[in-house]
Write a structure and sequence with these properties.
The chain has 97 residues and is an all-alpha fold. 66% of the residues lie in helices and 0% in strands. The protein has five helices and no strands.
Amino acid sequence: MLTTNEFAKVFDTILSTPGMNEVVKMDLKISRKNVLLLSHIMERGLAKTDDKTSPLLAGITQENLEELKALGDEFLTKSGLTELNKKLTTLSESGKS
């Protein structure tokens, strides 16, 4: 089994191969429910925490992080869920206190 460090090196190698920075156009049809769920999963996965459960996310650059956050925002905007997501996030945060 790979150690965390070895796993991170493998992912770093894969992510640096030729063509990995090329833009890919995708035609995606997804329900609004799944857009909202995907957005929350992305936010949760990209949140900076002390928990280093994923070697791939541990090595993510700030540029890649911002690009993925923008992608999540674009999903919400295109599906008309930006305002709903903000309200749900506010409701969720108030429930934590």
